[in-house]
Amino acid sequence: MAQFGFHHIHLRTPDPEATAAFYEKMFGAEVIRQTQQGKPRVDVKLAGGAMIFLLPSAPGEAAEAPKAPNFGIDHFGLGVTGIDALAKDLKAKGAHFTVEPYDIRPGTRIAFLRGPESVLIELVDTSGGK
Q1: Structural domain total, the chain
Q2: DSSP string, 36-102
Q3: What is the pLDDT of residue 121?
Q4: Which pTM was predicted?
Q5: CA dihedral in degrees (17, 64, 96, 112; nearest 10)?
Q6: Is residue 69 part of a domain?
Q7: Where residue 95 sits, what CATH number does that domain have?
Q8: How confident is the model over 62-109, as pLDDT tens digits?
């Protein structure tokens, strides 16, 4: 039987460099710059290997972030430890939280913040520590 594992998400953005800088600043992501089919490309790699491919929008292209509730991808989640201290650190870096850390069930604490282009990012802490 085939085995499946998470490989990447693809985010559309009018400014790949600014979007990459956000993920680098907030989450310590590695920014990867390369050339693909003769065009510059910017991606980010999170600790643990998860990739975020940044697709630049075409000049003049009108695109909007989905409004909740919507079909398709609603948000993506990152596993973390020490969510309360992390949230405080991210706020000091300028992160905007839409949902502050709280216990969703015993042993699991979550929070949500907005990334560039209104991407919703969930932080999930199952370590039991605050």
Answers
A1: 2
A2: ETTEEEEEEE-TTS-EEEEEEPPTT----PPPSS-SS---EEEEESSHHHHHHHHHHTT-EEEEEEE
A3: 95
A4: 0.88
A5: -110
A6: no
A7: 3.10.180.10
A8: 677 677 777 777 889 999 999 999 999 999 999 999 999 999 999 999
